[in-house]
Amino acid sequence: MTTVTRTNTETVLQVEDLRTYFRTRWGTVKAVDGISFDLRRGETLGIVGESGCGKSVTMLSLMRLIPIPPGRIVSGSIILDGEDIIQISEQEMAKIRGSKIALIIQDPMTSLNPVFSIGNQVEEAIRIHQDIPKRMVKERALDVLRKVNIPAAETRMKDYPHQMSGGMRQRVVGAIGISCQPQVLIADEPTTSLDVTIQAQYLKLLKDIQRDSNLSIIFITHDFGIVAKMCDRVAVMYAGRIVEHGSVRDIFNNPSHPYTEALLASVPKMDQDVDRLYSIEGQPPPLHDLPIGCAFAERCPDVMDKCRAEYPTNFAVNEGHTASCWKLE
Q: Which segments within 121-215 are labelled E, that is strand?
């Protein structure tokens, strides 16, 4: 496990008590239910958890891309570079989205338009957000494609998404994300569709870009191997809430919430010969019908009566490391 120690303590993003709900025929789905975290300049925060725990809705909330209706950010604040972007108009947010905070989506084929060339799509973001002469837009686009190691970038500018491999398309999406030099880059499982070799190259590319530009990254993933390579801190989400938050070293060496322990136990150990891989029993609760107490109680091996009656307080394990579990009381 490799971790990076950051000396810059300037906070570029601060999220406080963020709640994003969806009204459905079954009831109100509390997809994000009161999460708080901050992000310092030049650091990488990993957000991990099972599918359906609220990771991607958190990302969409930060970008103000929640579909209305049925979704809505009902409370909380998202302070980006000193400004609460929840309080600004959509027109003002459109200027920030892509310039100050950018996004790399999981599947590049759904984020790249098949009827426009690669050059057109990279140049679009630059034209919208960068106040530079028109003749320089193409040069900036070429420069950013070269930065993400697209070979023969000038030729590739004329290609369409279907003419590129999955790894190349993912690099193009990354190029669009960094084209306007944002302060925060959100990467929502960007390596899911890549093979292991291309995945390693892509992660190294992101780290190189981060080192050169002091970029802050939020990395959403299921893969604890990626967390160990990429992240400085980790937020573990379950049923719309952050149940544990700490440095990568603390989370790996001293997991303090039973759910975190279960996730780490689910990672196969290459040096162990087992008949059956570990899995977490049961399913996450439906987000429209959450229990009164801890949402993990029905799956937890350490469950107590208090867990079912009251949601646990966020306890401090040590400096910078917290977990929401009654066993820490």
A: 184-188
15's enclosing H/E stretch is: strand 11-24
Going from the N-terminus, what domains does the chain have, and what CATH number goes with each? 11-100+182-328 (3.40.50.300)
Cis peptide preceding 70, ω within 30 of 0: yes
Long-range contacts of 127-131 (CB under 8 A, 24+ apart): 128/98, 129/95, 129/98, 129/99, 129/180, 130/180
Place of tokens 């937890």: 300
Mean pLDDT, contiguous 10-residue spans, the chain (329 residues): 52 95 93 94 93 90 92 95 93 91 82 91 90 88 88 92 86 88 89 76 85 91 86 95 95 94 85 78 89 93 92 93 94
Q: What's the token pair of residue 37?
A: 């975290």
Neighbours of 310 (CB within 10 A): 12
CA atoms within 13 A of residue 199's CA, in its CB half-sphere: 15
The structure's pTM equals 0.88
